[in-house]
């Protein structure tokens, strides 16, 4: 019988509870041994999910330093506000835990480099929980694009929309010191990461326009970029949409058009000479935790190491820099 992975869940707010629901489908491989959340209310909501599943809720220890001393653990899943990510991840790595870290990884490039050093010094695993990178759909798309089977990469067009602005009023997501950015740094982070995954190369030039729509952080954004190969990219984020949350990504190659989403929620392909998109079949997935365990067990390479956090930080910094110059192109990296 395979020994269950002992996990601490750090943060059990709305997104944390989403992940708990998925992890409770994997009790054959996973034991959530303890939760770490400073809010008794959020813990109570999370505990209810265990009770409903017929499982005794794990205890809550809000003091992470004490928790790491008192509990025998294998892994940590960190799902806290963005400003907390660096210090909590570093502490868990130094305590000898493998870590799955919610996106965006960090607040800036300096923090990204710090976590890369902590990963190297500890010898532990660090995976960033981008569902796109961790999805079979995006991995299959990347394989097709790299093989040359679809021809030369020409352009990429990506859009994400959500009622993010009105839905996050009076939350930490609109407090810049805690969130690190607005819609393009939060939900839009999935778009930035997935597009660069698909492109397989860095942005060279970036031009961007951002709008706060009278909120504390940006909720609207348009980005035009040029990749090292000369291929061009457009990124469009609307965080003031009607009640909705969706995305669309089109990759145009000389021999085909590939369609997916920023979370890997679909994968379709239209080859030259064909009249319509055809669904590409991939293995099913229970989400980021299942994929994290597959990486941990050496079943798949790590598709989302901390280097992607540095990559995204550089791209977002270039977007903000260009927007601050009213769309003047800037160099990325």
CATH topology of the largest domain: Dihydrodipicolinate Reductase, domain 2
Q: Evaluate the radius of gyration.
A: 20 Å
**How many DSSP-defined strands?**
14
CATH architecture of the largest domain: 2-Layer Sandwich
- The helix-strand sequence is EHEHHEHEHEHEHHHEEEEEEEHHE
Number of helices: 11
Overall tally of structural domains: 2
| Arithmetic mean pLDDT | 96
> How much helicity do the residues have?
25-40%
Biggest sheet, in brief? 9 strands, mixed
- Reading off the top of the CATH hierarchy, the class of the largest domain is best stated as Alpha Beta
Cross-sheet strand order for the largest sheet: 13-12-11-10-6-9-8-7-14
What this model shows, in words?
By secondary structure, this protein is an alpha/beta fold. It folds into 2 domains: 5-128, NAD(P)-binding Rossmann-like Domain (Rossmann fold, 3-Layer(aba) Sandwich), CATH 3.40.50; 136-285 and 305-331, Dihydrodipicolinate Reductase, domain 2. It is 34% helix and 24% strand. It has 11 helices and 14 strands. The chain has helices at residues 14-23, 40-52, 64-70, 85-94, 109-122, 136-147, 164-167, 176-179, 187-199, 288-296, 307-324; strands at residues 5-10, 30-36, 75-78, 98-101, 126-128, 153-162, 203-211, 220-227, 232-238, 245-253, 256-260, 267-271, 278-279, 330-331. The strands form 2 sheets. A 9-stranded mixed β-sheet has the order 13-12-11-10-6-9-8-7-14. Strands 2-1-3-4-5 form a 5-stranded parallel β-sheet, with helices on both faces. A hairpin with a 6-residue loop joins strand 11 (256-260) and strand 12 (267-271). Helix 1 packs parallel to helix 2 (40-52), helix 5 (109-122) runs antiparallel to helix 11 (307-324) and helix 6 runs parallel beside helix 9. The longest helix is centred in the last third of the chain and has 18 residues, at 307-324. 44% of the residues are buried. The mean pLDDT is 96.
């Amino acid at each position: 019988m395979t020994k269950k992975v002992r996990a601490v869940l750090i943060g059990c707010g709305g997104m944390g509870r989403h992940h708990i629901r998925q992890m409770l489908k994997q009790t054959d491989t996973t034991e959530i041994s303890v939760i770490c959340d400073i809010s008794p209310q959020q813990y109570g909501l999370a505990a209810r999910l265990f009770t409903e599943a017929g499982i005794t809720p794990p205890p809550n220890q809000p003091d992470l330093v004490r928790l790491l001393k008192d509990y025998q653990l294998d892994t940590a899943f960190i799902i806290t506000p963005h400003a907390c990510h660096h210090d909590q991840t570093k502490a868990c790595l130094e305590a000898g835990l493998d870590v799955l870290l919610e996106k965006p990884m960090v607040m800036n490039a300096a923090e990204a480099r710090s976590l890369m050093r902590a990963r190297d010094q500890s010898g532990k695993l660090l995976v960033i929980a981008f569902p796109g990178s961790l999805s079979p759909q995006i991995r299959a798309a990347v394989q097709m694009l790299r093989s040359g089977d679809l021809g030369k990469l020409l352009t990429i067009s990506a859009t994400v929309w959500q009622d993010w602005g009105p839905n996050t009023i009076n939350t930490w997501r609109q407090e810049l010191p805690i969130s690190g950015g607005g819609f393009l740094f939060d939900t839009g982070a999935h778009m930035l990461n997935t597009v660069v995954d698909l492109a397989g190369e860095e942005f060279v030039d970036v031009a961007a326009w951002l709008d706060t729509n009278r909120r504390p952080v940006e909720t609207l954004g348009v980005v035009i970029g040029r990749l090292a190969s000369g291929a061009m990219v457009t990124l469009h984020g609307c965080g003031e949409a009607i009640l909705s949350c969706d995305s669309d990504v089109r990759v145009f190659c000389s021999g085909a058009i590939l369609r997916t989403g920023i979370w890997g929620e679909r994968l379709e392909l239209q080859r030259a000479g064909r009249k319509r998109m055809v669904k590409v079949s991939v293995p099913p997935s229970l989400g980021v935790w299942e994929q994290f365990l597959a990486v941990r067990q050496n079943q798949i390479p790590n598709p989302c190491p901390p280097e992607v956090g540095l990559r995204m930080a550089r791209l977002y910094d270039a977007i903000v820099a260009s927007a601050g110059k009213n769309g003047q192109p800037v160099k990325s990296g």
